[in-house]
Amino acid sequence: MKHIRSFAQLIWVAYFAKQLLESNRTSSLRDLYYSSEAFGVRFNDQAESDRIITDLECLTGKPREVFGIFPEERSAIFGSVKMSYTVPGYEGREVDLTLSPDGFPIGRALMTAKPIETDAEMILAVESGGMFSRLIETMAWKRYRAILVQLGGQPPRSTRSLMRKLHEAFGLPVFLFTDGDPWGMHIAQVVKSGSANAAHIPGLTIPAAEWIGVTPADIQEYSLPSEPMTSADLKRLDELARDIRYAGSDWQKHITEFQGLRRKAEQQAFSRFGMDFVVDTYLADKLQ
Amino acid sequence: MKHIRSFAQLIWVAYFAKQLLESNRTSSLRDLYYSSEAFGVRFNDQAESDRIITDLECLTGKPREVFGIFPEERSAIFGSVKMSYTVPGYEGREVDLTLSPDGFPIGRALMTAKPIETDAEMILAVESGGMFSRLIETMAWKRYRAILVQLGGQPPRSTRSLMRKLHEAFGLPVFLFTDGDPWGMHIAQVVKSGSANAAHIPGLTIPAAEWIGVTPADIQEYSLPSEPMTSADLKRLDELARDIRYAGSDWQKHITEFQGLRRKAEQQAFSRFGMDFVVDTYLADKLQ
Questions:
Q1: Residues A263-288: pLDDT tens digits?
Q2: Max CA-CA distance within chain A?
């Protein structure tokens, strides 16, 4: 009985995804959960419908976003790149991603847009919205010829998919700038090697992407204001030390150094040396 | 001594804000906290620097965003309205807010932009990103001639300030569509009457704004899928019942009905009746 139930759920999710595709529509994960009731399909909670969507991804090898199913979180992009929209009502319309000085949210329209041209030479993805804004308004994007991406924590797959698309279309290197703690390091790792949740989906990883910091060595070299790690931070480090994605010697070195330092620093911490330090000194050191 | 310390902090925050204004730059709250160290000004934690910023707002009667100080959260806007940017590098450049089908983030650039023209007839602000996307892609914004705003929970002041600017510049009514629970109701209330945290700042409230739901009456009339309220929900209702902003009879009625019902429903819950129900039926009932 249990198997029949989840099979019926899977069929319905596939049907719902087909409806979305045919009508060129999108749905949030939450919405899909509520929509099921209209069809007499029962999920105990959203966790259950999310799991069935993962099953669909496994079967098809495609991320849910391809079927028009999006999570709530959004991240943003800004830079000298022209994209051509494919969503209904905007087919073939071109947009220059420097046009909105607040950036562009990465939703379904940008995720499905075609890269046309760029004069950028790298993709620079940062963790916080504050850093993203700073790099726009200091014209750091011009100076480093960078397409800026705001990851906003663990980045949604639409963001990772768009980054990979730009990386491949234009052959641009990808640099990742996050907080200096196990969580920030893992955001970079997920962009590079994929998340445990999406391990079944090809086409989202960027193996050549590089974590530029904040590394434990940076915390010491730049004498950054730092905070002691919590027990949750230290536990997370232990987990990462055993994670296959961290098997490389560079990663192991970062982990060992964090474990020795037992301190962490946010990317915002460079402001301690003035508003321009991060652009003029830190990024210059790391990117050039 | 305690007063000298906080006075010194206030002077520094005012100095920092002046620097931001003169150099046409912005800072996040977090960034300002770290920046203080460059000047030998000590805050125990970010809560303390946030409080001093509030003091500056009290003294000047202006929201921190006017000084270029922004929180991390962002919300978004989409609709048939032309704005003219004033930020450096974009002065006088016009942007049509239907140009990005994923919406525009409301950051410093849009907050300081000038409204030029619109053919919209209302501002419709919604709580969730999922609802915002749905109203864009179903062309509900065209059908209801609405400028759409995604509040994203308790909306940042930049968002409230932009909504008020559009409300005043074009004389547009403002409708608020949130989850049907005390938290959603209070999001609407804050847009209407202001937050306790920003009670000292004029120019952010929209007294004529109207909460269209999800009301407790809606939960029953539309037979929405609902969940029992938690003790935190019920406690929050008790607090709101005593809050001066809820003194009006309509609000008291909503509170009493929620207390009787003891259930809540998200705005996504309308998906139970199919993807188009919320646009074709619910919004039609409420807005026409």
A1: 999 998 898 888 789 999 999 999 97
A2: 64
Sheet of B94-96, strand order: B94-96, B81-84, B114-118
CB A145 within 8 A of CB A120: yes
B15 given a catalytic annotation: no
Strands A227-228 and A263-264: antiparallel
Q: What is the largest CA-CA distance in chain B?
A: 64
Give the list of residues 6+ apart from residue B143 with CB closer than 8 angstroms, or none: B279
Residue B149 contacts residue B127 (beta carbons within 8 Å) = no
pLDDT tens readout for residues B125-138: 999 888 998 899 88
The active-site residue out of B33, B34, B90, B222 is B34
Whether this prediction's pTM lies above 0.95 is answered by: no
Distance CA A149, CA A114 (A): 17
Closest among A120, A126, A139, A97 to A279, alpha carbons compared: A139
How many angstroms separate the CA atoms of A184 and A98, rounded? 27
Q: State the Cα angle at B270 between B265 and B276, rounded to 5°.
A: 165
Q: Is the separation of the CB atoms in A109 and A161 below 8 Å?
A: no
Q: Which residue type occupies A186? A: H
HSE (CB half, 13 Å, CA atoms) of B177? Answer: 29
Three-state DSSP state, B94: strand
Cα angle B190, B213, B236; round to 5 = 55
Which of A85, A103, A273 is the closest to B105 by Cβ?
Answer: A103
Residue A143 CA to residue A101 CA, distance in Å, equals 16
pLDDT in tens, A198-257: 777 778 899 999 999 999 999 999 999 899 999 999 999 999 999 999 999 999 999 999
Note whether A268 contacts B95, CB cutoff 8 Å: no
Could you read off the pLDDT of A53-91 as tens digits, one per residue?
988 888 888 888 888 888 766 789 999 999 999 998 999
- Retrieve residue A277's tokens: 């330090």
Size of interface A-B (CB pairs under 8 A): 166
Give residue for tokens 């698309």: A165
